[in-house]
């Protein structure tokens, strides 16, 4: 069994209004040290497969086909072996 | 300058309908190896402060006061030094 930790974030070229809104809210709460904020999605998925390579292949595929919008988002992930 | 990578996820006791919906969608796309899916939020924020301890303190505070809903969510973060 493998655990995939998937990070989906906006492409640099894409405006991140959510991140801007959070930054402004934090400044209104007097967190002046905050320079930039970006918000993305974080997924954890357990995969019942027999090798790390297979887990990477499945994770790539589920990101491309469902979890990340290729026009606006980019993704990266980490794979960990968990249990048998 | 410090970069905080923040992961906000549902508490274990809280139902994650979004994660369930994604799991079902992936099964319909024939990704049978997928066992569980949980979706959370991922933030990156740059902090203009002078120590890692200060960066941790600010990050804790912005999570408690804005980024994570204490009733339903839990958070963890990683701090990296970036630039001067």
From TrEMBL, chains A, B:
Superkingdom, taxonomy of origin: Bacteria
Reactions catalysed according to its record: N(2)-formyl-N(1)-(5-phospho-beta-D-ribosyl)glycinamide + L-glutamine + ATP + H2O = 2-formamido-N(1)-(5-O-phospho-beta-D-ribosyl)acetamidine + L-glutamate + ADP + phosphate + H(+)
Record's keyword terms, sorted: ATP-binding, Cytoplasm, Ligase, Nucleotide-binding, Purine biosynthesis
Pathway: Purine metabolism; IMP biosynthesis via de novo pathway; 5-amino-1-(5-phospho-D-ribosyl)imidazole from N(2)-formyl-N(1)-(5-phospho-D-ribosyl)glycinamide: step 1/2
Record-linked Gene3D superfamilies: Phosphoribosylformylglycinamidine synthase subunit PurS
Known EC number: 6.3.5.3
GO molecular function, one term: phosphoribosylformylglycinamidine synthase activity
Subcellular location: Cytoplasm
Keyword Cytoplasm among record annotations: yes
Summary of the function given for this chain in its UniProt record: Part of the phosphoribosylformylglycinamidine synthase complex involved in the purines biosynthetic pathway. Catalyzes the ATP-dependent conversion of formylglycinamide ribonucleotide (FGAR) and glutamine to yield formylglycinamidine ribonucleotide (FGAM) and glutamate. The FGAM synthase complex is composed of three subunits. PurQ produces an ammonia molecule by converting glutamine to glutamate. PurL transfers the ammonia molecule to FGAR to form FGAM in an ATP-dependent manner.
Subunit structure comment from the entry: Part of the FGAM synthase complex composed of 1 PurL, 1 PurQ and 2 PurS subunits.
HAMAP family noted in UniProt: PurS
Family stated for the protein in its record: Belongs to the PurS family.
Listed name of the protein: Phosphoribosylformylglycinamidine synthase subunit PurS
Organism, scientific name: Apilactobacillus xinyiensis
Gene designation: purS
């Amino acid at each position: 069994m493998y655990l995939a930790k998937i990070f989906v974030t906006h492409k640099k070229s894409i405006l991140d209004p959510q991140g801007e809104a959070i930054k402004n809210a934090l400044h209104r709460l007097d967190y002046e040290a905050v320079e930039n904020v970006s918000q993305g999605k974080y997924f954890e998925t357990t995969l019942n497969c027999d090798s790390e390579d297979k887990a990477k292949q499945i994770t790539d595929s589920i990101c491309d086909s469902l979890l990340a919008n290729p026009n606006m988002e980019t993704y990266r992930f980490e794979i960990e072996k968990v249990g048998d």
